[in-house]
Design a protein that fits this description.
The chain has 15 helices and 23 strands. It is an alpha+beta fold. Helices cover 32% and strands 27% of the residues. The strands form 6 sheets. Strands 12, 15, 18, 19, 22 and 23 form a 6-stranded antiparallel β-sheet that branches. A 5-stranded parallel β-sheet has the order 3-2-1-4-5, with helices on both faces. Strand 13 and strand 14 (223-226) form a beta hairpin. The longest helix has 21 residues, at 241-261. The radius of gyration is 21 Å and the shape is globular. The structure holds adenosine monophosphate and glycine. Adenosine monophosphate is lined by residues 120, 143, 152, 155, 157, 187, 189-190, 194, 216, 226, 273, 285-286.
């Protein structure tokens, strides 16, 4: 079977790597792919392909692709999955209507409120004056979120009322986020521990994947600006079976029912970003309509089942016919190596050295922003590599990941040396 993976990050490298493990998979087209997928024997990068709906659809049909796996949210929000399904292709990823779960925080909040899914109380505003009046009544910190997709930059956890009002003004008056910022949510801050629960669903049956913890801030100790994610660990030891069952019962089941009620046939991944409050209750911080990055690089190496089989069953709407995912014992830890300056400005195009030595440690080196030119890998993005270690304990997984990271070098390489710290306390 020929498969096509849309995207160019570490998540997509991990997806292509895992899909390629199936003996049924003959070729994985990566659109556009990166330096890591360029080196995989079953993968073919398509950097020249126009990443538009028609271009991908035409290419998939001509090449006899049967399954398309969409990594990022933006093409899903544009309706890529709808377009491909109209061409008769199998797709892992929701259509435009389902992608609103991520593409409109107001839509997602309305759905959660209607379906009784636990989430932080919030109000929607289109004008500054009422938002300001509301903000000034709120305890601190207070959270301001722009409605639409903002590449991870649309959330402000404001420590002062002035900072919150400024975030509202940036969106509603200065138009900093364009159309994505025409509405804002002002949301109550939730204290607690964050966990990412991803699940595969065909809109009827839902199989959660192992819980993961993402380290989003750029700085050690979870300080500094938010990034796409600087590291991840899986599974999360304190996510007990009882807590996972509550997440299914209180969050995923009502969500599926709500999607069905709205006529949405959701076939893909639902990513629930949760806060587990000090009282021990899981509350939704956000939904994403896709796999997480770098959570995927931590979760997929633990998956013992065939991802192709699960993905095809999801896409065909017969997930109940295949067994739920089976997991390897043990833990993974993923450390992201970034270009110095990220998530701000950074320079690309530096040669990356030591990849062979890093892989020789047994760690998995997933490429994020890299490109290959004449057998040399160069940096090509903010997040450059995601290195995943595996072991019987979280400590062992971290040791393998950091042991491999030591071998890798490129100019201005930056990584956090404390991934996993929240899980190591206690
Ligand atoms: P998002 O871009 O929606 O993932 O939000 C970025 C980060 O902001 C989340 O991972 C949380 O750490 C934080 N955050 C968002 N909403 C809340 C909230 N209501 N309470 C506390 N933290 C939040
Ligand atoms: N790691 C966060 C995300 O994928 O949105």
């Amino acid at each position: 079977m020929r498969v096509l993976v849309v995207g160019s990050g570490g998540r997509e490298h991990a997806l292509a790597w895992k899909l390629a493990q199936s003996s049924q998979v003959t070729k994985v087209f990566c659109v556009p792919g990166n330096g890591g997928t360029a080196t995989h024997p079953k993968c073919v990068n398509m950097p020249m392909l126009p990443v538009d709906l028609e271009g991908i659809g035409r290419f998939a049909l001509v090449q006899g692709v049967q399954l398309v796996v969409v990594g990022p949210e933006a093409p899903l929000a544009l309706g890529l999955a709808d377009h491909l399904r109209e061409q008769g292709l199998l797709v892992l990823g929701p259509g435009r209507a389902g992608a609103q779960l991520e593409a409109s925080k107001v839509w997602a909040k309305t759905l959660m409120q209607a379906e009784g899914i636990p989430t932080a109380p919030a109000q929607v505003f289109r004008e500054v004056a009422p938002a300001q009046a509301y903000i000034e009544q709120q305890p601190l910190p207070v959270v301001v979120k722009v409605d639409g997709l903002a590449a991870g930059k649309g959330v402000t956890v404001a420590q002062t009322h002035a900072e919150a009002v400024q975030a509202v003004q940036a969106a509603l008056v200065e138009g900093k986020f364009g159309a994505a910022g025409q509405q804002v949510l002002v949301e109550t801050f939730l204290p607690g521990e964050e966990v990412s629960i991803l699940a595969l669903t065909d809109g009827k049956t839902l199989y959660p994947l192992l819980p993961a913890q993402d380290y989003k801030r750029v700085g050690v100790g979870d300080t500094g600006p938010n990034t796409g994610g600087m590291g991840a660990c899986a599974p999360v030891p304190w996510m007990t079976t009882a807590l996972q069952q509550r997440v299914e019962r209180e969050i995923f089941q009502p969500l599926l029912a709500g999607l069905q009620r709205r006529g949405i046939d959701y076939r893909g991944v639902i990513y629930a970003g949760l806060m587990v409050t000090p009282a021990g209750d899981p509350v939704v911080v956000e939904f994403n309509c896709r796999f997480g990055d770098p959570e995927t690089q931590a979760i997929l190496p633990l998956l013992d089942s065939c991802l192709l089989e699960l993905a095809v069953a999801c896409a065909q709407g017969r997930l109940a016919e295949v067994p739920p995912p089976v997991w390897k014992p043990g833990y993974t830890a993923t450390v992201v190596l970034a270009s110095g300056g990220y998530p701000g400005e950074f320079v690309k195009g530096y040669p990356v050295r030591g990849l062979d030595l890093a892989e020789a440690t047994g760690a998995l080196v997933f490429h994020s922003g890299t490109r290959r030119e004449r057998n040399q890998i160069f940096t090509d993005g903010g997040r450059v590599l995601s290195v995943t270690g595996y072991g019987p304990t979280l400590e062992a997984a971290l040791a393998q990941a950091y042991g491999a990271v030591k071998h890798i070098s490129f100019t201005d390489c930056y990584y956090r040396d404390d991934i996993g710290w929240r899980l190591r306390r206690a």
